[in-house]
Amino acid sequence: MLVVNNDGWRQRAVEAATASGERLCVFPLPTDYKDKLKSNIADIKQCAEEGDADHILAALFLREFIEGTPPWLHLDLSTSSCKGGLGAAPGPETGFGAAWTFELLRQLANKKSKAL
């Protein structure tokens, strides 16, 4: 699951996912969900008690503290296991995100070197 606050970074992330063979699901950051983070005892809750839209709420929580910063993206690896293995990994740990990260960095490095 990917959350990103910038269309350019969203496009780069999806391109890197396609090139690396790792699938990404880009989640939205809908502001109407923000009400679920209201709290009577804190400035903001980390999540909702009923458990709906956990990943989106976590991203909205993060956004509260990093909005106004340069563009950012967050790749959630919390569900990166697969009983019986997945792809090249024989165990339950998939290693998901490693190939994507290297591909994204490779693309960014190539883009920067072409700009120089």
UniProtKB/TrEMBL annotation:
Gene3D superfamilies to which the protein is assigned, alphabetical: Zn peptidases
Domain Cytosol aminopeptidase, residue spans: 3-98
InterPro entries: Leucine_aapep/pepB (IPR011356), Peptidase_M17_C (IPR000819)
Annotated SUPFAM superfamilies: Zn-dependent exopeptidases
Domain of life of the source: Bacteria
Record has Protease as a keyword: yes
Keyword set, alphabetical order: Aminopeptidase, Hydrolase, Manganese, Protease
Protein family membership: Belongs to the peptidase M17 family.
Name of the protein in its database record: Cytosol aminopeptidase domain-containing protein
Organism field: Candidatus Doriopsillibacter californiensis
